[in-house]
Fold each of these.
Amino acid sequence: MKDMIISPAVEFYDVVTRTHSEGGDALRSVLAEVDPSAGPILDVGAGTGRTVQIIAEAVPGARIVAVEPDLVMRTVLTHRVVADDDLRSRVTILADDAQGMAIPETLSAVVLYGVVGMLDRDERARLWDRLLPRLAPGAPVVVELLPIEQPQTLPPMPYAKERIGEHLYEATLRGEPGEDDLMVLNTTWRITGEEGEVRTVHGTSQWHTFGLDDLARETGLTAERLTLQAGLLRASG
């Protein structure tokens, strides 16, 4: 994973996840069948803890390893965990990236939401080499991807909308091809109140484009699409 420049729009992360909640519902459904006695659940790129909360609710008693390298995201994650007695007893937080994280000996499930596209092909190959031998039999790998399998131009489109107090938060997203398999994604957030525009925030990120079938070929696992953006990888049989 290349050194990441965190977007100024990181403060709106949870606004986006509220707007696009289908992936969370799919994750909850898959994890409901997980046996936590097989090992902890690994959440790579845990962000502010949205997926950690879903994992904890879907699999009572499961131990959770939450990996988040970004300080801003991890600060919110830690606050969420510390404020909840149940999470505080079950969640271990690692300040590592996907390449450097310590992986438990056996995993009952792996969650990769919003992170796999930050890795290029070689980085993904190294991740699979480390992860796959640690999966318990039948353990699911749940991924969330952008529904973009090759670089392309995306015209501006609505991305998120939420009212918080007296302010309305609205975002648009546009994209353009980058180098090789990269997409360059630009977001514009406008926060308005009764007196008009309060502020505007621009953010830029990059995403390696590929599809769920590509991940199936890379891992040798069977793929199942859950939503437009979420998918399941699991050993067949």
Note: Residues 8 and 54 are 26 Å apart (CA to CA).
Amino acid sequence: MYYPIALNIERKKIVIVGGGMIATQKLRTLQGYGAYVTLISPTITDEAKTLLQALDGVWHERNFEKDDVNDAFIVFVATNNKEVNEAVSAAVNAQQLILRADDVSQGNMLNQAVVRRGALSIAVCTDGASPSLTRKLKQRLEEQFPASYDAYVSFLAQARQHILANVPRDKSRALLGRLVDEELEQYVAQGELQRAWATVHKWLDEANV
């Protein structure tokens, strides 16, 4: 069983061994997190080249060497060569995180499927039991929480700060709970931010603050 956790990988060294579709997918998931990414493979996909450039990453156009994982925070093993995969596993120490795409039981971490809407992150994982189910559940969540949730979560953050700055503590908790309101969600989804803020200010008036 894996413990679910969110990691800050900014300025952390991430090593990807492999240059095919799995490695490319890993590069997609690393966009925007500020990690130092190194990829080792004699060849890589065209998309991987583009993604690596966007990450300001490094491509070592050669086979894996054991020193490649020195000081790595996370190592993704994404080749279809078992001998290479075993060599990477042998080079990693117990303090490093490793995910082997060919056999997750040989690693100590798993990637989760993530639906991100601004500051809202919803992660799904089946501990490797069924990647297909993970993808299906992610699709359902993407439908349940549309892109408009980005603006909604941003509005909630601003409204929360406004309440905390202007409402006494003994009254703020109840008001903060009211923010998770379907009416507010609909207003923001429809781009009616003025109506959303008017509702919040109405609640403040009702609370005599």
Note: The domain at 1-110 is CATH 3.40.50.720 (Rossmann fold).
Amino acid sequence: VSYYEMKERDGFCLTEAFLQELQEDVDLLFLANPNNPVGNTIEDVLLEKICDRCREKKIIVVIDECFLEFTRKKGFFETHSMQEYPNVILVKAFTKLYAIPGVRLGFLFCGSQNKTGQIFNQLPEWNISIIAEAAGRAALDETEYRNKTISYIGKERAYLKAELEKLGIKVYPGEADFLLLKTEHPLYEKLLKEKILIRDCGNYRGLSKGYYRIAVKTHEENEKLIAQLKDTI
């Protein structure tokens, strides 16, 4: 297994330099769009170039779009044909946008019946419970909730970014329901004492001490976080 580390100077975004990494010795490529913990997306033109090159080199591409709905951007198979890209597998989940992680419900799209069959054969029997199926079916009808949630998260994400930057904290331009921060202050330890838990990202590959990820929550919870940071920093 090989890892490709994105650079801070590029805003932790993929660039066209990544295309040169896609050679015949690569069998399978995993991409997160948007990625974690930054939350930024791959430019549409670059993503298409990556999938084109992988098709040429016979590389299977798995694109994780579990957080993509928060960005209001279209998924890869909303703008490209599955038959045109049989080497691409899209992975999605109900657990993020609909806030139902406990049911562990997700799904995938693939234009290759052969690959779909191979994946299906690896699944355990009865891998989806009746409760999970019912929750998924109900979620698909929640159009109003979906639209309100996406708008609300976008508004609160902008609020958090602006308030954090006022405190001198570097905020990377994420598009999901979380933000990556960088600061010299030991935020994890100080906030934990106040019973506020954030993610210390110092153990992420390519990151180091001083990076933290916070979730975009309700306005009241976000205000509480900002107020505590003002007292802490």
Note: The mean pLDDT is 95.
Amino acid sequence: MWAAVLFDLDDTLVDQHGAARSAVVGWARDRGLDDPEDRLVERWTALSDRHYRRYQDRELTYLEQRRVRIREFLPEVPLDSDDEADATFAEHLARYEEAWQAFPDAAPALRRARLAGATIAVLTNGDHDHQSLKLTRTGLADEVDHLVATSRLAASKPHPSAFLDACAVAGSPPDRTLMIGDSLELDVRGALAAGLEAVWLDRSGTGRGSGVTRVSSLDQVLRD
């Protein structure tokens, strides 16, 4: 029996990619951008991945990474002041937050963990306040005992200290803690390096030869 189960949030419990795609396409159309949808999503995703990593590496603050993303996505729009950049990003953010949805298999998996007697924590590389809002709006907050966001820790996943800090919050030794997440490197290999057990949630079903426990749905976990 697991003393604690740690879940990643984005693209594990909540459909982050679906929300991001819907938001950027709708927002871009509102602004008169007529690029093909896939191109818009590709550009936004590349900028988000690059600059969010800089935030995780403590090169930028949370607000700074938002500002640089919006300025690079809209180079033809004069966003000289931070207030202008923040207001423009807020247009996109409103659409993004409206599009948040939990995966259908998320709440049942959290409930199975609770029925098994485990403490439930979400370990996310996101900003604490924003991820807390996400849990609330998607109806998952009451299913979770602890939210552990690396914005309040010394390091982000996959650094082992992030997992050890989450174990400490959950009151669980690493060898009795299970990590479940969609990122092979950030969630699974990071957890294993910290002494936890881990399951890779490969929703696309395309991962092969990873050498780790892999499932394609949360319906497949915590069944014993």
Note: The domain at 4-15+101-220 is CATH 3.40.50.1000 (Rossmann fold).
